[in-house]
Here is the input.
Amino acid sequence: MGIGDDGALINPSDNQQLVVASDTLVEGVHFPDTATGKQIATRALCVNLSDMAAMGAQPRWFTLALTLPVERANSAWLKDFSAGIAEISRQFDIALVGGDTTSGPLTVSITMLGEVPAAESLQRSGAAVGDSVFVTGYLGDGAASLKSLTSKFSINIDSNRLLQRFYSPQPQVETAIQLRGIASSCIDISDGLVADLGHICQASAVAATIYTQQIPIAEDVKRFSPKNCMDWALFGGDDYQLCFTVSADKIDQVEQLIDGSELNACKIGTIQIAGDGGCPVTVLDSNNSPIALKKQGYDHFG
Amino acid sequence: MGIGDDGALINPSDNQQLVVASDTLVEGVHFPDTATGKQIATRALCVNLSDMAAMGAQPRWFTLALTLPVERANSAWLKDFSAGIAEISRQFDIALVGGDTTSGPLTVSITMLGEVPAAESLQRSGAAVGDSVFVTGYLGDGAASLKSLTSKFSINIDSNRLLQRFYSPQPQVETAIQLRGIASSCIDISDGLVADLGHICQASAVAATIYTQQIPIAEDVKRFSPKNCMDWALFGGDDYQLCFTVSADKIDQVEQLIDGSELNACKIGTIQIAGDGGCPVTVLDSNNSPIALKKQGYDHFG
Here is the structure.
């Protein structure tokens, strides 16, 4: 992973805008001290790739700043970490173009650069009254996986998919590129559906109503905790799926993609006129009664 | 410093290459725990700006990943830190385009993006036999300043310039842009003159001879420690001046810039055929005897 010069030279494509996003992962805050080098590398890259997806960008290049305690600065740890970087880089066709390694508390900071045709980027601010709200994939996977990592009790989990989800989130890069010109707004779900849809509402000066009956939750997550799974899906975060809005004149396009199995997404609600303060997202249960919105903080490790 | 979307959109200029560089500063490793928020911000940006200078790039945009312990996450600290970011951003006309803040040990990771006309970037690999070696400014300031910060003794230092140098290095951005098309190779002096000139030699497959009598050392550094000042200049690091090489046919251009006070630089040696192993840099004293090259490590804090 050595880089030869003080900086890396890259050649942006013509007629593209660059998208830049940075994310830092700190041991004990964003991952437990039991995480392997490969798991940390994989998660760090996936979190950043998800930011590219949120913008509808094609990820291209990244820099990596690795801060490593002396006891980890050995070839076995670095080999494992590098394997994770290599695997995700191959999978998403991205190039490591620079970075540095320093001594200190274990921290991984990645800056990712992507490209998007001028004026085609997806943003948070485009949602309009009457738009439909969609999400990709299943929600609650991230929180369920986190729970399985941090629980002190022997837990009844029978899903390898779920056990691995925390360290191998699935950035929705291809899906987001499909949504260029279709979605009116988009965000990746890192803080939790209600919080992130709230970010869309704030940026767009609108409100949203979503329906618990339409929230997609995987069977293994329901089995893992029938009691908590809806909370995880609404507030849990770390799903790295996309939440996006679509205007009425584009709904047919989205439905066709979904029906043809080209897009794994479902409609969960609608965009409305902004209210006067409070949470801009209303969640209605199976009786169409609004559920109380808890502010559920990020689960910290250590 | 809030950023609205998952990524920042930037528009690269036509016919320019992008230069990307990342640097991370960790408390206790790259700065002492006595450093103020403003000092940390200033130093972090200047170190990254110096990487842009080394490449001959015009710095344009940066992202900032700040990891902050709970006890510093207060408005006074952040205000001070932001003041440092704002001051250097104004001075160098660069824009903060993204970043994130996380909880953890104090770490500042910056990724800087700059532009350079296609094929005009300065690199380490262009030095050729017969080229002259130059440095900008004074050397040894960084190490002297570091010494004044870490010494447990009351030290005889009478120079405000020097006391401030550690937190306000002077990235040689304008000088580097002047050197486009003139310098055959370039590097910024962060690890120490001998080490960094060694990097040029390795990348260019050449060797270098430099003369202690020609090394520029400021009067206040000589006064501070007549005994150590040459060691600091040769091995000290943290100077953030430039070391560059110039081929015989461009020497007149450089001499004219120096004579006209448009370029603050001086010749310190020449480039030669690579030897067989060992340090590629030979340092000759005032008797033209080679001096023993100590490997002087980086001074760590804490």
Observations:
- Chain B touches chain A through 58 residues (CB under 8 Å).
- Residues 296-302 of chain B have pLDDT under 50 and may be disordered.
- The longest strand of chain B covers residues 16-26.
